[in-house]
Specification:
Layout (H helix, E strand, L loop, with lengths): L9 H12 L6 H25 L5 H12 L5 E2 L1 H8 L3 H13 L3 E5 L7 E5 L1 H21 L5 H20 L1
Antiparallel strand pairs: 1-3, 2-3
Helix pairs in contact: 1-2, 2-6, 3-5, 3-6, 4-5
Length: 169
């Protein structure tokens, strides 16, 4: 239950409206999932603007950051990439075409299996992925300044717990 001295947010207002209109409706899920959705919508434009400042869209960043965090030699098969990114192979192909054209990735035949290919970051791609993730983390950290270190730790732990339970289902 919310303390009367706490500031009201968008979700509080929505809950109040539903309470007035449908007093028997349990809106507790909105207190968590509605806020998570609202947070995502509020920060998304800034995140996308950060990536755009590097000439990337969110999908392109996802590809080069996945390759970069895979560790040396920063190469994965297209199947590994679209599985990790949870996108279709067609969606990945479009992204890879744009990234290759920009000189950020190379597509090569696999040395271990000539029938398959690997996608690898170029030096330019490695540098861009690192610069973009550093800028993104700096930007995102500003959104958390209103929370103490203890609050951030507690919130991260609870969100992890919820996410693990949903991923298992």
């Amino acid at each position: 239950m919310r303390n009367e001295n706490e500031a009201r947010d968008h979700v509080d207002r929505l809950q109040g409206q539903w309470q007035r209109e449908l007093p028997d409706l349990d809106t507790e899920p909105m207190t968590i999932l509605g806020r998570a959705y609202r947070l995502s919508n509020l920060v998304r434009p800034s995140i996308e603007e950060t990536f755009a400042s590097f000439g990337l869209d969110r999908g392109e960043f996802d590809v080069i950051s996945t390759l970069r965090r895979s560790g040396p030699p920063y190469r994965l098969t297209p199947t590994d990439l679209y599985t990790l990114l949870m996108i279709s192979s067609g969606g990945l192909t479009h992204r890879l075409d744009r990234l290759q054209k920009a000189g950020l990735i190379v597509r090569e035949r696999s040395a271990s299996d000539g029938r398959s290919s690997v996608v690898g970051l170029t030096d330019k791609g490695i540098a861009l992925a690192e610069a973009a993730i550093r800028a993104d983390m700096t930007s995102e950290a500003r959104y958390l300044e209103g929370l103490s270190a203890e609050d951030r730790t507690a919130l991260a732990g609870l969100l992890r717990k919820l996410l693990v339970s949903l991923e298992r289902a």
